[in-house]
User: What shape does this take?
Amino acid sequence: MHLILKNARLVTMEEGSAGYTPTEPCYVLIRSGLIVAIGNNLSSLYGNNPKEWTNCPALDCSGGLVTPGLIDPHTHLVFAGSRAQEFEARLNGESYQSIAKRGGGINSTVASTRAASVDELIELALPRLDSLINSGCTTIEVKSGYGLTLEDEAKMLVAAKSLENHRRINITTTLLAAHAVPLEYQGRADDYIDYVVNDILPHVAKHNLADSVDVFCESIGFTLAQTERVFSAAKAHGLAIKGHTEQLSNLGGSALAARYRAQSVDHIEYLDQTGVEALAASGTIATLLPGPSTSYEKHSNRLLKHCAGLTYRWQLAAT
Assistant: This one.
């Protein structure tokens, strides 16, 4: 397929100030999905074979921006139920921990997600996916974590992978079975980690349901020792590693993830200098998530202070 974009203003994201400055309107020639030429003189862009571009479709961008596709590296796109009332409670001053203790938080979504079928989860996810696509996303990571059983975690991942059959989008999947201790395992977090490591993770790896494995390392989630057990098992099964770390306190989960060469650590509101340096040394990416926090400005100022003088990569996830 051949396509000509005209009156397109490009933002290339190349290093240097010019890469972040929109160009003047220009032409872009695309052959079989690949950009082959960019410039202001269309005839010179055709090269030695102008006939191949005869009668091909042309899209007038009318001076609009043409940018690289956006990547959302942290979404919980597949789930059932709603926690909108909890966000309102947090805006009114109630803490994440308090909401979780009174039965809210992650476990409040689990019952609805367990009751939903794969088709129902897909149907619920598609409007959320469309919103991201309309915002310019072309690649999206989808985490599980609201099933907390082998059957339901697998169901979430199957639904996530199936989204590619419904939309033109690239989906990567992450097993987040260690998202919370399910109600049936309350007071037995180590037993639940046994279940994740010995049953859920091997099944997911065997059936290629996930590209990576994540853990919520936190005071209301899992300890460093429990997190490391999951990281070690993920590595043994050839799966990449990610971490929900330093969201509510500083347990050192980011530094642990860095030791395992994790792809990313997410949230990190309470990340300290030791954690920053560990991430910088390992090349692990820090994903900032302003959406879940009602006071991210305070946290981000501290993070920027910690990161001063370091060469570091940051990704912003719009979730």
The first strand starts at residue 2 and ends at 10. Confidence is low (pLDDT under 50) at residues 309-319. Residues 121 and 196 are 22 Å apart (CA to CA).
